[in-house]
Each structure stands twice: as C-alpha cells, then as structure tokens.
Amino acid sequence: MGEIWVPPPSVDTSVDAARRSACATVWCETVLKIIVGWLVVTGAMAQDTRNVTEPAIPRSCAVLSANLTAVDSNKTLAAADEAKPDTGRIQKALDGCAKGQSVELKPDGAHNAFLSGPLNLRAGVTLHINTKAILFGSRNPKDYELRPGSCGIVDQRGHGCRALINGDNAPHSAVMGDGTIDGRGWAKITGKDVSWWDLAEQARAGGSQNCPRLIVVAHSDDFTLYRVTLKNSGNFHVVYSAGSGFTAWGVIIDTPKTGRNTDGIDPSAATNVTITHCFISTGDDNVAIKAGGHCSHMTIAHNHFYAGHGMSIGSETNGGADTIRVSDLSIDGADNGIRIKSNSGKGGLVHDIEYSDVCIRDTKYPIYMDSDYAHYGKSGDKLPEFTGIVLRDVRVLTGGRITLQGYDEKHRLGMTFDNVYFDKPQDTKVLAEHAALNFGPGFVNLHLAGTDVTVKGAPVTGTPNACAEKFVPLPVR
After folding, report:
1. By CB atoms within 10 Å of each CB, which of 127, 281, 437, 468 scores lowest?
2. Residue 422: what pLDDT?
3. How far is Cα 222 from Cα 123, in angstroms, rounded to an integer?
4. What is the CATH number of domain 13-308?
5. Cα–Cα distance between 418 and 443 in angstroms, integer?
6. Read out DSSP for 223-269?
7. Is the pLDDT of residue 3 over 50?
8. Which residues contact 325 (CB under 8 A, 6 or more apart)?
C-alpha cells in the first residue's frame, strides 16, 4: 500500500518525550538502545513493498483516566472491581474520535487499570495505552460470546468468542503506547472453576476450546501495533488477516510457555507485513504466517524470540506463501526455531523464503521443515511443497534435532544452506527425507543425508555468524 500511513495532524511531541522519560529502567536500557537508530526498515532484505518508518502516536481526541487499581503485582483486579467495566466509555470515545487522532487511556495516581469486554476499533483511530496503564480483559465469557453460551466452553465447533480488541473494515487504525493489555488467561473465568488456559488443556482430549483472542483485525489495510505490551491472552495474541499493510514495531509479548495456543503474532492471508524490533515469549508460535489465503511480501527483522514454537510458516499453506524475508533474529530457549509446517490436508506451495543473520540456542528443534505435520498418516489432496528456502548466516549454538521432511519424491523440500554453522554438530541429530539440498557458497559444517536426499556442494570450514550480542533479556515493564 505504499508508505505506512501516518495520521495527518501534527504529532504531540510532548507525548513522545514523556513516554521516553517515564519508561522503566529495564525498558530504557534494553529496548531503547536497540530501537533507537532503527528508524526505517529498508535494504536488500526488505520484502514489504512499503517504506516502513517508526510510527508516531497521534494527538489525543479524548483522555480517559483510570478508575481501578491493579493488585497482586499488577496481575489482576480486586474482586469488587470486576463489576466495574470501562467498556462503554472506551467504546464511546473510539466511536466519537476523528480520524487521525487517538483515544488515550492513562493512569490517575494509584488508579492504573481499566476493565473491558470486546472493543471495536474505528477507521483511522488509534487506541493509546499510556505508560503504566493496564487494560484488563473481562473474565466473563458472556461478554465475548458470538452465540448464546458459545464462549468459555469446549465443543466441536469452536470460534465461539469475540476478541478483546476487534478491527473489521477499520483501515489505518492502530493500538499504541507503552502500557499493557492483559487477557488474564491464567485466571478463573466468571462462574466456572477453570481458566481460559484450562479450557485449552481440556481440548487436548478432543474438541475445540472457545477462548477469546487479544487482538483480531481483518479487512483493514495499514494497521499498526506500536510499543504496547501484550500479556496472557486466552488464545492467540494478534491475528491480522485479509489485508495489506500491517506493522508491528517494538511490541512486547510476555506470556508463560504453559499457555496453550497463545500464538504471538499471526499474519493470515495478508501482504505487505513488517514485524520489527519485537520481543516475543509465549506458549505457541512466536510468529506464525498462516497461509490459508495467499501470504506474500513480508519482512520480519530485528526481533528477539524466547519461549515459544519459533518463527513459523503454516500449518495452513494451501493459499501459498512467498517473498518473505526473516533477518537479524535471535531465538533463545524455544521449542522450535526456524519452522515451516503443513500437511496434505491444508498444503500448498511455499517458496522464495529467506532467513539471514539468525542465532539460535537452547532450542529443541532449531530447524524444522515438516510436510506431514500433525497428520498422523492421514492423506489428502492439498499437497505441500517447500522450495526456494534459503538459510544464510545462520548459527545454532547448542544441539538439537534438525527435521528436513519433503512430502514425497515429486514434492521434495528444496533448501540452500549458505554459511550455516552448528557449534555442537555431535549433539545434533538429523532426520531428512525427500529433499534437494544445496550447500554454499558459504560453508556448512553438518553432514545432512537421508532417504531420497540429494546434496550439491560439500560442508567446509569457515567463520560462523557472530552471535555474542544477539541474545538480550526479555524486557519487563
């Protein structure tokens, strides 16, 4: 969609100055020194066709002060405050705000919290969560239900809940600020002795959990997430679908790895996407590009992943995915690192994907390419094919398991390894099948072989990618 949309009114620079001066020590020391200087995401690696620059928080059309106070180290609200929702006044302010302006939620002395059920973003309007403000999601399933009784249960249908923040046909909308949005996925839901995450665990036995996502935006070009912290979603944290132009810049996602199905950021059937300067620790995919519809022209650059299931494409690939660049990424302590996953029930063509300047450590499956993911011998007619996959300047500092699994001899995995180094090849196991692998021009120091596997080039010695300064602590606000 061209250049990223910036609201036309002049930005209130006092807001930005106050934000930077009031930020927490860890945030300032860890995040700002990384973000400052990266004002534009450009260069040979960029595949988002827009010229993406650091967003700016627009002037406020309305300022709402907090009436509630977070308790238990800012984890939740007192029981009496659960009956004091702010949904109505926040939505009224969003509905009444002019395009190019923002609704600001701010603390007021000891009062630092807001409580809300589902909110609807409006075209051109920004929801601004100011420093130290917390927007808690309601624990009441009735607030989110799409059908009577559809939310807060396990059934065979699924998709019974609205998200906390919804954007449908809301182009140029945004969620920004140095505050926090907390879904409280760990807390018991109203009227039941289970949490949203408990429902997700119950669904392992069969069925689908009906739990609210945190932010869902669809059919909305040029949507922006900027600097906000997202925590403890009942399900996926961010889903952006069926649009062109999505920027996530400086976002922190901090959710325990025990929160099942809590994906970080999921672009779906989308194009022109940039995810940059983000810190993501969660219980499922850190980023998952879901290509049930065509996904292309994406830039994932200058990010840090912690607990989670890695930098993923799939498992839906039937719409196709291509022209995706991942660069300057650290993955530290995840289950998976670089991952493309699909199966014959929802497979398609994934090609022209490049990963460069990636550092991985303490990760069970550092490189995971699986064309029969979670299919358990079933067959279908939507066959996955992964080709034109390039790993360049990638280093794996600890052992693990490498999976390179093409679908069959007609749908082989096509990958290039260029300057890919394993610090502990003796502790690295390889499962490879139906793969055409190219080594070079840079070195590769791991022997890769398997059934129906061809290799061009040969592993040689060389200089591994520099990773000493890549791993940084997860910022805590």
Report:
1. 468
2. 96
3. 10
4. 2.160.20.10
5. 6
6. EEEES-EEE--SS-SEEEES-EEEEEES-EEE--TTSTT--SEEEES
7. no
8. 45, 46, 47, 298, 299, 300, 301, 354, 356
The residues, any chain, with a CB within 8 Å of residue 111's CB and separated by 6 or more, are 65, 66, 67, 68, 69
Q: Cα separation of 428 and 423, whole Å?
A: 9
pLDDT beyond 90 at 178: yes
CA distance 356 to 439: 15
pLDDT digits (tens, 9 = 90+) for 17-61: 333 333 444 444 444 444 444 456 654 456 999 999 999 999 999
Please state the rounded mean pLDDT for residues 421-442.
Answer: 96
Q: What is the largest CA-CA distance in the chain?
A: 68
Q: What are phi and psi of 263, to 5 degrees?
A: -45, 150
CA quadruple 368, 372, 377, 383: dihedral, nearest 10: -170
Domain ranges in the chain?
13-308, 336-469
Placement of tokens 């069925």 in the chain: 207
Rounded to a whole number of angstroms, the CA Rg of the chain reads: 22
Does the pLDDT at position 130 exceed 70?
yes
How many C-beta atoms lie closer than 10 Å to residue 441's C-beta? 10
Q: Provide the annotated active-site residues.
A: 284, 309
435-470 residue pLDDT tens: 999 999 999 999 999 999 999 997 777 789 999 999
Predicted confidence (pLDDT) at residue 121 exceeds the cutoff of 70: yes
DSSP structure class, residue 61: E
Distances (CA, A) of 395 to 163, 405, 421: 38, 20, 5
